Amino acid sequence: MNVASASGSSGPSGSVDLASPDTFLHGAPHEALTALRRTDPVHWQPMDGEPGFWAVLRHADVVRVARHAEIFSASEGGIVIEDPPPQTLARVRTMLAAMDPPRHSAHRGPLSEHFRPRAIARREERVRDICRAIMAEARERADVEFVHEVAAPLPTRVFGEFFGLPRQDWSYLQKLAERITSSQDPDFGGSGYGDDDAGAEMAAYAIEFAAARRQHDPVEDLTSAILRADFGGHPMSDFDFGGFFVQLVTAGNDTTKGMLSSGLLTLLRHPDQMAELRADPSLIARAVEEIVRYENPLHYFRRTALVDTVLADTRISAGDKVAMYYTSANRDETVFDNPQSFNIHRHPNPHLSFGMGAHFCLGAHLARLEGRLFFEELLATFARVELIGEPVRIRSNLNNSLKGLPVRLMTEIRQIRGV
Ligand code: HEM
After folding, report:
1. Could you tell me the sign of the dihedral formed by the alpha carbons of 67, 69, 70, 73, in that order?
2. Where is this region: Disordered (predicted)?
3. Mind giving me the DSSP string for 321-386?
4. pLDDT of residue 418
5. Angle, nearest 10°, between helix axes 364-381 and 124-141?
6. Domain ranges of the chain
7. CATH of 21-415 given 1.10.630.10, 2.60.40.1120, 3.10.290.10, 3.50.50.60
8. How far is the CA of 62 from the centre of ligand 1 (A)?
9. Does the pLDDT value for residue 185 go beyond 90?
């Protein structure tokens, strides 16, 4: 048994610092993670200025943590490794992802019907129209910064319609979402995780929006559905709506934007597989699943141990932080053949990028639909896509995303030959 614990001596030191956003600047440290999965799969990672955390690296152990909310709490310390100040933690706890049972199920129940496969499938035509409009706008420009000009508008517009938000507010909310999730990157103005001013600003927007909506007859959108639903015997307060809204908009925006832009970059780096998708678009759904495994938009989510426990022979004490590393679990060689290679034909593909258990991503079916339609429309519109500059990654220990992807989009092959 590995007797290392948070309160005792640290475990075998690894060569990688998973707490530092700089570690991920040039991509995930897959080599180090592969070595740790073998030698130290529940790895103690110290942090500057606050207690460190256990990095859970193997697929089976991530599943175990995710499935045992009675041992590993999402609410106790929130879902990121940096301990939030009390005021932020109070707001974070109004988010579904940071609730424990039974509160969690009481809040998730009324929402889940809007995100089930059948409900999401009904949105296909509308989401396709949005994708076509985005591609038509991109055609006008040809040279684009793909992350912000092509990928980001999809989740922004889908959410705007989902919630019935005024169109003029959509890009403002997208920028706030980006500030919240990218605040470890100096380009977005922050140094820690979760720009709290942006989070509070978005919650205030949502609270005002909910209050105004209550004055009107309900309409058929998610806002009205949430406001008239029963959450464990009472309606949702405007304050709670604020937290919910922030969670849905941030969770849905940046992850989806990440999936679309990392997906394109991965396909550009695997031109044979891109060609296969062009030749047979029915392969795109499976390819999206592989994109989400290979370039999972979130590196980890955190839990806090409520009791002393043992995980993979490692003693974990009550109060310790525990981070489920999807980035590592998705490349666990005991689960995936050739885990380091990108393979659009991979099946089955039990990746953990959408989490597992009670907190399994509420928006997974929506994200899959957006991914499939986006790539179908992208490949149908542009005969050729070419990288015209260096891709730039977000500085983050949580978000596995790009912030810059300069590409040239060409409708005809002959454009690249200069004919
Ligand atoms: C590729 C895109 C996405 C990825 C990779 C992703 C990933 C995740 C992961 C890993 C979790 C689990 C959290 C945990 O266990 O602590 C989660 C939860 C969640 N996601 Fe997503 N997500 C994506 C898109 C979306 C979208 C489009 C929405 C919009 C509705 C969304 C809403 C949520 C919500 C509300 C939760 C919390 C669920 C709960 O705690 O019950 N996500 N997501």
Report:
1. positive
2. 1-23
3. EEEEEHHHHTT-TTTSSSTTS--TT--S----TT--GGG--TTHHHHHHHHHHHHHHHHHH-SEEE
4. 43
5. 40
6. 21-415
7. 1.10.630.10
8. 16
9. no
Distance, in Å, from the CA atom of 158 to the CA atom of 164, rounded to the nearest integer, reads 10
Ligand 1 mutation pick, 108, 288, 361, max ligand atoms within 8 A of CB: 361
Give me ligand 1 centre to Cα 411, in Å. 34
Q: Say whether 188 sits in a helix, a strand or coil.
A: helix
Alpha carbon of 156 to ligand 1 centroid (Å)? 16
Query: Which pLDDT score, from 0 to 100, does residue 29 have?
Result: 98
Residue 159, amino acid: F
Residue 238: half-sphere exposure toward Cβ, Cα within 13 Å: 13
Instruction: Give the Å distance between the CA of 324 and the centre of ligand 1.
Output: 14
Q: pLDDT for 81-99, tens place per residue? A: 999 999 889 888 988 999 9
> Sheet harboring 321-325: ordered strands across?
42-47, 50-56, 321-325, 300-305, 72-73
Helix axes of 170-181 and 153-163: crossing angle, nearest 10 degrees: 120
The tokens for 91 are 């707001």
> Does any ligand 1 atom lie closer than 6 A to the CB of residue 288?
no
Q: Of all atoms in ligand 1, which is nearest to the CA of residue 253?
A: 27
Position 124 pLDDT exceeds 70 = yes
